[in-house]
TrEMBL record:
<dbReference type="GO" id="GO:0016887">
    <property type="term" value="F:ATP hydrolysis activity"/>
</dbReference>
<dbReference type="Pfam" id="PF08402">
    <property type="entry name" value="TOBE_2"/>
</dbReference>
<keyword id="KW-0067">ATP-binding</keyword>
<dbReference type="GO" id="GO:0043190">
    <property type="term" value="C:ATP-binding cassette (ABC) transporter complex"/>
</dbReference>
<dbReference type="GO" id="GO:0022857">
    <property type="term" value="F:transmembrane transporter activity"/>
</dbReference>
<dbReference type="InterPro" id="IPR027417">
    <property type="entry name" value="P-loop_NTPase"/>
</dbReference>
<protein>
    <submittedName>
        <fullName>ABC transporter</fullName>
    </submittedName>
</protein>
<dbReference type="InterPro" id="IPR013611">
    <property type="entry name" value="Transp-assoc_OB_typ2"/>
</dbReference>
<dbReference type="InterPro" id="IPR003439">
    <property type="entry name" value="ABC_transporter-like_ATP-bd"/>
</dbReference>
<keyword id="KW-0813">Transport</keyword>
<dbReference type="InterPro" id="IPR003593">
    <property type="entry name" value="AAA+_ATPase"/>
</dbReference>
<dbReference type="Pfam" id="PF00005">
    <property type="entry name" value="ABC_tran"/>
</dbReference>
<feature type="domain" description="ABC transporter">
    <location>
        <begin position="6"/>
        <end position="236"/>
    </location>
</feature>
<dbReference type="GO" id="GO:0015697">
    <property type="term" value="P:quaternary ammonium group transport"/>
</dbReference>
<comment type="similarity">
    <text>Belongs to the ABC transporter superfamily.</text>
</comment>
<dbReference type="GO" id="GO:0005524">
    <property type="term" value="F:ATP binding"/>
</dbReference>
<dbReference type="InterPro" id="IPR050093">
    <property type="entry name" value="ABC_SmlMolc_Importer"/>
</dbReference>
């Protein structure tokens, strides 16, 4: 079929009459860390369930290692799933939990124990073999669930919001550990989350989903810097969106009429086309000395100190409905009530055609 490890081909799914996936096609490469990112109801968890064999799609096919796995049950396909609630057996030791999948495969007790110890060492819990799950912290239980999934050596590891139950500091720590473990074992990870920062920290392949469709996919750097759609620009990080109409188009440059004024930038949209321009917060400049594209003036409504920068909200004086979202330097003296010039550089403006 394909050199891809996973090939999702034209998959659609309905719950009753309600469509939750709409003609989704996606390829997953060996050794990749793929994040399915999107809001609640976007279809990402349903897609993960189809990959794991817990749901059979209404239409389409799922191939894993070139074999049609669309109707293959979870226990017989080369995938394992790590759930948000860990799903550990409380009456079993950690070692027995990790070795449970091997037990179901008929592996003998001595081999199970040896491989369970190896898997626990891989996730930094070599001394936890004889403990019970209730004796471990949330982060440790998460790692036990990961060891249990990895010990059976799946071709694809599926993770359903695995860090959602952890506090912020532990989530950051587990992100680092997940990425390091994935690099060590080389297994393809497919991880569902609605957390954009988590996606950017972990993924080398980011898939942005919305309303049952894939809006955008690619390396997280590209998806963030040059999002393909308006939704992707506003969900994968924040953006200021300028709506406009193309008034001139020649030599692969377009001029767009926007509320703050005319803006020229590279593009090929036809004259009269309604388009949107996106600008990331770190690319907006406050003050008289700024970028090459003037965006008028704005009145500051809110300033929030966030450590390395200040997050500034400011309403355009030309169009009060236009809200600028700015990452200003931490030392900036801007405060609510100030009216200040806003600008950016032409190369930092993203032209969206939807």
């Amino acid at each position: 079929m394909s050199a891809s490890l996973v090939d999702i081909s034209s998959v659609s799914h309905r719950f009753g009459q309600h469509p939750v996936l709409k003609d989704v096609s996606l390829k997953i490469e060996p050794g990749s860390y793929t994040i399915l990112l999107g809001p609640s109801g976007s279809g990402k968890t349903t897609l993960l369930s189809i990959l794991g064999g817990f749901v059979t799609p209404s239409e389409g096919k799922v191939f894993i290692r070139g074999e049609d796995c669309t109707a293959v049950p979870p226990a017989k396909r080369p995938t394992t799933t790590v759930f948000q609630d860990y799903a550990l057996f409380p009456h079993m030791s950690v070692g027995a939990n990790v070795g449970f999948g091997l037990r179901m495969q008929g592996v003998d007790a001595a081999t199970r124990a040896a491989r369970a110890r190896e898997a626990l060492a891989l996730v930094g819990l070599a001394t936890a073999f004889d403990k019970k799950p209730h004796q471990l912290s949330g982060g440790q239980r998460q790692r036990v669930a990961l060891a249990r999934a990895l010990v059976i050596e799946p071709a694809v590891l599926l993770l359903d919001e695995p860090l959602g139950a952890l506090d912020l500091k532990l989530r950051r720590q587990m992100q680092d550990e997940l990425k390091a473990i994935q690099k060590r074992v080389g297994t393809a990870f497919i991880h569902v989350t609605h957390d954009q920062e988590e996606a950017m920290a972990l993924a080398d392949h980011c898939v942005v989903m919305n309303d049952g469709r894939i809006e955008d996919e690619g390396p997280p750097e590209r998806v963030y810097a040059r999002p393909a759609t308006r939704f992707s620009a506003t969900f994968m990080g924040e953006s200021t969106i300028l709506s406009g109409t193309v008034t001139e188009a020649k030599n692969e440059t377009v001029t767009v009429a926007t509320p703050p004024g005319a803006i020229s930038l590279p593009g090929t949209s036809p004259v009269g086309a309604k388009i949107a321009l996106a600008i990331r917060p770190e690319h907006l400049v406050l003050g008289a000395t700024g970028g090459t594209i003037a965006l008028g003036t704005a009145t500051v409504s809110d300033v929030v100190f966030q450590g390395s920068f200040k997050r500034v909200l400011a309403a355009s004086t030309q169009d009060p409905a236009l809200q600028f979202i700015v990452k200003a330097p931490a030392a900036a003296t801007v405060q609510p009530g100030d009216t200040i010039a806003v600008s950016c550089n032409a190369g930092d403006i993203i032209l969206l055609t939807d």
